[in-house]
Every structure is written in structure tokens, then in C-alpha cells.
Amino acid sequence: MNRGFGSAADRNKEPILAVLRGYVGTRPGVQVLEVASGCGLHAAHFAQALPNLEWQPSDVDPQALASISGFIQTLHLSNVKPPIYLDSSQSWETWGGLRPNSLDLIVNINMIHISEMKCTQPYAVNGSITPQSNMDFDYNLRRR
């Protein structure tokens, strides 16, 4: 089974893992949705390091979904669910059968800078974007 590789994902997996550990602790059965899992490297790395998580990877790209499946099968990751097709520009009801109140944590890594503007709008609160760094990021995205 083919597995992709992302150099950015490989570089930032440890710092992100450190942050995740702070959020999830050791409580068993933590349900996590990863939006835009890409090749699946993060899902595999985090699932191995945090066996108390039930990881739900997702992506909109069929090649990414195949790569995620490759990681799951090759590494025998029992706490990673089969990847689901998830288009974040569509309503959550279309997101692979996810049910309301079924998740403890949603993560999204390395996606915002490549997504359509309509996918980034949830980061504005009541139409306002703060702090300045987020305003600058929004401006940069809109210029593209």
C-alpha cells in the first residue's frame, strides 16, 4: 500500500504532539477528528504516541485517503479509524457519518493556507479577526 510523505508534516510532528499531549492527557477513548489529514503521517505518529486516542483521519483528496489507509495497514494502527472523505466547505452532515457530540477534539494542521476562503471564515468571531497576526494572515490569504 502506498504511503505519502510530507516534509512539513515530518518537521512539525513533535512540536504538535507536545501540544496535543497537553490537551488530551491520558484519559482513555478520546475521540479526535483530524480535518485534512494529508498523507496520514500526523495521524500515524500521534496515534502511536497517544494510544488513548481514537483518531479519525479525513481528507478531500482520494490519493491522501489511500495514503492514510496505507499507514494504518502497514503500522497496524488499531486506534486509527478508516479515513473518511471530508470537504470542509460543505455542511458537517456530509462529513462521513459523523454524529453530533461524538468528538472530543478537532485538529487541523497545515490546511488553512491552501484552502478556499469560505473554509477559513470560522476563524473570525462575529466577523472580527484578532489578534493582528491573524489579521495579517487573513490579508495575505485574500491577496492570493
From TrEMBL:
Domain of life per record: Eukaryota
InterPro entries hit by this protein: DUF938, SAM-dependent_MTases_sf
Family statement drawn from the similarity comment of this UniProt entry: Belongs to the UPF0585 family.
Protein name: Methyltransferase-like 26
